[in-house]
């Protein structure tokens, strides 16, 4: 059996938007499960001040809910969380990594640049989210191409073809994730934009927030232009990001 599940694993409320989500993917292939980004985790909900800090919760606008954790949702689907063998992360911001500790035996797949950034004392990260010392596979520069993008083939326990696609800027190692699925391509772009509306409206408030949060805003804008060109030239590719409710299909 092969299925893909779209999970909302984050709820954030901010003044400009009271329904910010965290769009994660769960790929089911026979008895193996793979998560793409992990949202807020069980330990974040149970120990919010220790794991996240009251300051971060207030600054981001986290609304912590056990039912939103990937762990809980996997159980609700009738699946076994112990079968999550791989977690692919677009980047290591805490709203993408909180659930990693809920799958302690899963291999974490991440770009080499992002792992370096994570351990560089960049204040955006929470090193505690990797304190359980999971096995990590890091992916460096590749000669492979995917529709004009550099493509780093992810080696997992699944047969599904998956690539990390560098979309640097939001963080220094941020990647999108391309998935070949039933004869077509899905392109999850993580936080390359917060809302799809940013692609056409440079003054969109979400874009201003994205600029403020970017490690390298010039590269972030370059990544957005590449996404726009891909969508125009290859409309058959399904493109979606992490935070936009309108792109989420449960």
From TrEMBL:
One Gene Ontology MF term: hydrolase activity
Domain Metallo-beta-lactamase, chain residue ranges per copy: 21-243
UniProt entry tagged with the keyword Zinc: yes
Domain of life: Bacteria
CDD domains found in the cross-reference section: metallo-hydrolase-like_MBL-fold
Keywords, ordered alphabetically: Hydrolase, Metal-binding, Zinc
Pfam family, one: Lactamase_B
SUPFAM superfamilies given in the database record: Metallo-hydrolase/oxidoreductase
Family named by the database record: Belongs to the metallo-beta-lactamase superfamily.
The protein's name: MBL fold hydrolase
Lineage of origin: Bacteria, Pseudomonadati, Bacteroidota, Flavobacteriia, Flavobacteriales
């Amino acid at each position: 059996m092969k299925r893909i599940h779209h999970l909302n694993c984050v709820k954030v409320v901010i003044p400009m938007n009271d329904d910010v989500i965290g769009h994660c993917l769960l790929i089911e292939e026979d008895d193996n499960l793979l998560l793409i980004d992990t949202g807020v985790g069980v330990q974040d909900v149970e120990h919010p001040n220790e794991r996240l800090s009251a300051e971060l919760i207030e600054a981001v606008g986290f609304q912590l809910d056990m039912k939103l954790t990937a762990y809980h949702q996997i159980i609700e689907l009738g699946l076994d969380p112990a079968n999550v063998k791989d977690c692919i992360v677009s980047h290591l911001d805490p709203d993408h990594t909180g659930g990693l500790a809920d799958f302690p035996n899963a291999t974490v797949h991440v770009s080499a640049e992002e792992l370096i950034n994570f351990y560089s004392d960049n204040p955006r990260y929470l090193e505690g989210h990797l304190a359980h010392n999971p096995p990590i596979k890091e992916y460096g520069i590749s000669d492979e191409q995917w529709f004009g993008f550099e493509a780093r083939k992810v080696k997992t326990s699944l047969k599904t073809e998956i690539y990390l696609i560098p979309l640097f800027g939001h963080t220094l190692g941020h990647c999108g994730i391309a998935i070949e699925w039933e004869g077509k391509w899905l392109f999850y772009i993580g936080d390359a934009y917060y809302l799809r509306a940013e692609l056409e409206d440079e003054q969109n408030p979400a874009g201003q927030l994205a600029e403020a949060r970017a490690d390298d805003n010039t590269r972030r804008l370059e990544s957005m232009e590449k996404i726009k060109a891909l969508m125009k030239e290859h409309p058959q590719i399904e493109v979606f990001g992490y935070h936009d409710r309108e792109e989420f299909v449960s």
